[in-house]
Amino acid sequence: MTVKLGVPSKGRLMEKTFDWFGERGVTLSRTGSEREYSGKVDGVDGVQLVLLSAGEIPRELAAGRLHLGVTGTDLVREKLVQWDQQVEEMAALGFGFADLIVAVPSCWVDVDCLDDLDAAASAFRAEHGHRLRIATKYHRLVRDYLRAGGVADYQLVDSQGATEGTVKNLTAEAIADITSTGETLRANHLKILGDGPILRSQATLFRSRKAQKAVAERAALKQLLDKLGL
Amino acid sequence: MSVPSSVTRAEAARLLALFEQAGAQRVDCGILQPAEVLLDLYGEDIRGRAYVTQDPSRGEQMLRPDFTVPVVQMHMTGGAEPARYTYAGEVFRRQEDHPERENEYIQVGYEVFDRVDPDAADAEVFALFHTALAPLGLHPATGDIGILMAAVEGLDTSARRRAALMRHIWRPRRFRALLDRFAGRSPVPASRAALLRAEDALADAGPMIGLRSPAEISARIEALREDAQDRPLSEAQVAALDAVLAVRETCPFALERLRDIAVDLPAISGALDRFARRIDALDKRGIDIEHLDFEASYGRTSMEYYDGFVFGFYAAGRPDLPPVATGGRYDALTRRLGNGAEIPAVGGVIRAGLIEILGGGQ
Q: Which residue out of A107, A116, A130, A131 would a mutagenesis test of the B interface target, given it has the greatest number of B Cβ atoms within 10 Å?
């Protein structure tokens, strides 16, 4: 058996993860054709690279099928109940920065904070007969945040992509999504509420608290973490 | 999670029989409930607490998180008056914050729909639960959301501000923030000040998108301008409200304390008369009111549909356990679900499984 390291299978997140490990003497690379999801690890023994979607890495860590995994803190906190009992943050990797925020139409000049959002939601519900809709894919994080903030008369509607377009398309009144530069929000005539983000996220190396480790895996894991300086 | 044991089921049957003896008619309701009604009542929070499932033909369904709502619906569509109902069955609750707690457990309930003497009905339900649970030596807690609502209703401030506070009675943090704002204790944010000063606030608003119309935005700005002209809520009124919220005594002392506060907040007098009548009714039913605790803030965080008397029974020395029984008055819920009709209603539920854990039952 080997230590399984999960890394996002695509794009910049994968490349930057490869760079981060490479700088520490652990070379991750893809093998086979451009489209094949297989990879290898050089510079340390007994470690297997598993390429998979960043969104699935939290679940695989919690199930103990990965020993280590790189994914966003937003995904870990959204998908894992009591996340800190299931995984441990080993290192913030310094890229993949994104804030989970609540945004409303820029034309809502009367809404700048949660207090305003709550008051607007109350009036909206009375006027339209349904709760103010907030489009998001981060249901748990957003619900917890709005409950803690004492916001009522809203409902979450699921949006798995192009969330910024939902307001213009009249399927939601506001959104909660991740943003790094805010450009897409501005292009869609949305503004961020001023209370500060729900969560600041970045790519992070997590260790599973559930994964079983025999003697050989313990040794390989220690060797890998030593090499990474963790 | 564990399936209710035979001991728990026997205990549920015992309670059900006890409640039938007390005059209740046995009723049942579906495990799957249409989610729409519950979502409309409780809002998004219920999704975090209940199991919602999708049915392409019937829409979203919910595994019943309680019996009260379906029982009220049943009564409001043709129940005879007065009515007493009892039921026993599983309810289902997600436990994200307490994974060690059961997500499926048996509730046995008793609900009273009776116009004649609501205070006597409050006492009837409490005394019945008190008797049913007596061997366990539980600690009873009581409160009255009605007193708090009367206090808010009686504040010397605009109707809009009173409505905003009333809407957040069950969210203490937001309630406090609003109170601070209305009392002029929290500073006006710069963005708000600029908005109120602006000649035409919508001039630089950019493209109008979404369902919320420019008229709705203007209406809120107008409301904010009017609100800014209102004089702040007086320190004396805030202090009186805080004093109400802080009352935590045995019933007779709580009543005395609240009567003192009513000198500055006379609007609560009617609610206090009801409290006094309830204490008498409890006394008549043999409850030791001299030692019965009363807490004015009790029930503010977890019992959103209660609007009067509230109570709970707790196992002393077991803070890890949820209350063994909870209940209260929910007149407003009958109004919400009654399509114009309404009836005073009070009731409660016992968690039969906890009785077994505490060494009770047969």
A: A107
Which range marks the domain in which residue A193 is found? 98-200
| Total of domains in chain A | 2
Q: Which of B244, B273, B271 is nearest to B260 (CA)?
A: B244
CATH number where A77 lies: 3.40.190.10
- pTM for this prediction: 0.88
- Are A110 and B195 within 8 A, CB to CB? yes
For residues A170 and A93, membership in a common domain is answered with no
Nearest to B195 among A109, A143, A152 (CB): A109
Q: Which residue of A has its CA nearest to B202?
A: A109
Q: Which of A85, A104, A109 to mutate to probe the B interface, most B CBs <10 Å? A: A109
Q: Which CATH class is domain B1-136+342-362?
A: alpha beta
pLDDT per residue as tens digits for the range B151-206 = 999 999 999 999 999 999 988 889 999 999 999 998 888 888 889 988 888 888 88
CA angle B174, B212, A177 (to 5 degrees): 65
**Residue range B127-148, pLDDT digits in tens:** 999 999 999 999 999 999 999 9
Task: Determine, for residues A82 and B211 on separate chains, whether the beta-carbon distance falls below 8 Å.
Answer: no
Between A and B, how many CB-CB pairs are < 8 A?
101
Same domain, A10 and A78: yes
CB atoms within 10 A of CB A176: 25
- The residues near B176 (Cβ < 8 Å, ≥ 6 apart) are none
Do B86 and B108 meet the contact criterion of CB atoms below 8 Å apart? Answer: yes
